[in-house]
Amino acid sequence: xxxxxxxxxxxxxxxFVFDDATAIETATDxxxxxxxAHSDNQVSEADIEAHREQIQCRISGRSLLRxxxxxxxxxxxxxSIPVMLRHVxxxxxxxxxxxxxxxxxxxxxxxxxxxxxxxxxVEVFFAGGHDVDLFVDVVADLFEAMPVQHVFGGVSSFADxxxxxxxxxxxxxxxxxxxFLWPLTGVAMEMTLPSGSFPAYRExxxxxxxxxxxxxxxxxxxxxxxxxxxxALGRRSLWEI
Length: 241
Description:
The chain is an alpha+beta fold. The chain has one domain (about 1-240).
């Protein structure tokens, strides 16, 4: 079963930063197979192979060229992921009341990030349903199962803010997303969260780290609480840039 990214509730996403030893093809294969094993719907090997081909197309940038042609604008002006992925289809994995799918974050550098930006970042995005807590639970389980160093995500406006800050020279192009606290954050290290009044909706401890759900909907929250939570972890909030 395939899904087109732009016609569903796709604003919510989680990006998994794999360790340097893991190639992006290996990383996406691992995530696809994990989701297939846990999916309530049947996803065939042919479906998975077709998804791999789409991912390879994304990595090579061919889909970017095709969509730029469809939109009749220069390739180097393509910056919108929803526009760029209008014609790209992926497998849908049903997990209880929600569905998710898999992409590669900034695969063709459609966001215009510096060439030094890591290329081993796998994106899992909301592809149906409304249960954000369940989505975060899936993210936390994937985080535990994969050789992931960081998770960053939320609704797409937070990624937009990060990219805009780089393009406007508000932050250096070498500033990595995981230097900020995101509405959805995972850290693969022993981390002691501040006791008592740490202003997060939910923390999910895992054997290899912790996943933080800062806001219930990964979008709406107090700017002051966001800044306080970020400072408590030695980071910055994206709303401060």
